[in-house]
Amino acid sequence: MDRSDVGVLVQSAAGGDAAAWKAIVEGLGPLVWSVVRAHRLSDADAHEVCQTVWFRFAQHLGRLREPDKAGAWLARTARHECLKVIRNARRLTLTDDPLLLDRVSEDGTPEQSLLEAEEAASQSERVRRLWQEFEELGERCRELLRVLIASPPPSYQEVSAALGIAVGSIGPLRQRCLRRLRARLESRGTV
Asked: Given this model, what pLDDT does residue 121 score?
């Protein structure tokens, strides 16, 4: 194609002339293909680069400062797109090594992460309900259970001295309080 013809066709295509666009693609398509093929890309990558080059050309069609140099613009863009594909391909290393392919990720699968997050939320909700029901128990039960869950656990003599409860009454009282708490949780469907 003659440079002056290219300039006129580019201006016509920018104005919406489909025939001019078709003439540009037919006239400069072989140039784009030759640049792409010179980079020895796979067929799929070569087709992808060609489509990208023409897409970019269509995006910039009305903004080309020198429409008569559209061939140079297309060749330069094709070269840049090819180099981009080559750079990205270097980042990926294809392998058929079963040790690498079968390796389990330390992060787990997205499904595992979702299940773990849901389980954590469910556990958090159960704990919240437990403490809510715990607060509804009588003062005496709350005091006794709080003291008994201390770490390290106190001896029954220490509990007796702290709460003024006979040592022999601590076990039965603890059982009644826990039964009451369990009944409250069961009535709410939490257990």
From this structure: 87
Per the listing, tokens 């106190």 go with: 154
Please name which of 23, 24, 73 lies closest in space to residue 53, comparing C-alpha atoms.
73
Q: What is the pTM of this model?
A: 0.48
Q: For residue range 172-185, what is the model confidence (pLDDT) as tens digits? A: 999 999 999 899 88
pLDDT digits (tens, 9 = 90+) for 100-121: 656 556 666 677 777 888 888 8
Helices (H), 92-166: 98-101, 110-136, 139-148, 156-163
Q: Which residue has the tokens 């029954």?
A: 156
Stretch (H or E) spanning 42: none
Angle subtended by helix axes 156-163 and 167-187, to nearest 10: 80
CA distances from 3 to 12, 13, 63 (A): 14, 15, 17
Overall residue count recorded for the chain in this entry: 191
Question: What are 72-78's contacts with CB under 8 Å, separation 24+?
Answer: 74/28, 74/31, 74/32, 75/31, 75/32, 75/35, 77/53, 78/32, 78/35, 78/36, 78/49, 78/50, 78/53
Cβ count near 41 (within 10 Å): 19
